[in-house]
Amino acid sequence: MDGSETRRGVPCWYKRDNVGLTAINDSLLLQNGIYILLEHNFSHLPMYVPALETFRDITMKTCMGQALDSMCLLNGKPNLDVFTMKRYNDIVKYKTAYYTFHLPVALGMFLANKFDKEMHRQAKTILLELGQFFQIQDDFLDCFGNPSVTGKIGTDIQEGKCTWLVVVALQRATPAQKEIIQKYYGVNDPAAVANIRALYEELSLPNTYAIYEEETFNLIKTHVQQISKGSSANWCNLKATESLVVIDDQNRDLLKKSCKEKCDPIRYNL
User: Fold this and answer.
1) Which of 38, 208, 219, 220 sits between 20 and 30 A of 135, alpha carbons compared?
2) Of 83-92, 140-149, 197-206, which range is least confident?
3) Residues 113, 119, 123, CA angle at the centre, nearest 5°?
């Protein structure tokens, strides 16, 4: 979907021999397989209809998010005029957060016969926050991560993606720095990528990310503690989900390994 060469350290499916555009049909087979599996395994349970509705709703939201992401390109080039934080947040919410975080927890709640709307609302709030953190972390590692550690070769800069890094850079950049972004962002050339990465470092974006990481960790931790206090919500201790993306002591070592040496280790508190 995003033109990547590898995923989790292996060639992307569409890059395999004799696949190519057939991958589109393969994705439709997978999507429709969801409903076959749901009917076969869960049609006798109360969660069946809510699960169907949830899959349909989140599939639509994900497609909307992908459309917003695709519309950031104009004639194959990044349309920097629409690279705003609002557009970025909408892309993250619909393209990533709903299906990656909200969907699996909502399904688990239905399977446990938890249909209370307030429970779902509380969980959804935290899960969407986690989704945003996850995507911003992914954007950062795409640029500054080590592919041998992350399992993914970064392509956001050369593809002209609307990422957290470029949006913040555009907010901070001087007119001269914006000209650099206009000239090199979305250009598939190692020198162009290096120029953009150097500009990110000049604008102290690694340090900004470190601050964001710490503040978001504390915010999500507070929200998890609040939802876990109520006896009606103790069924949903989201610390397990929190640990998937929050940079704890063990994950800090991984982040340190995956970052370039120019990232300030003091600011990261690694």
Assistant:
1) 38
2) 140-149
3) 110
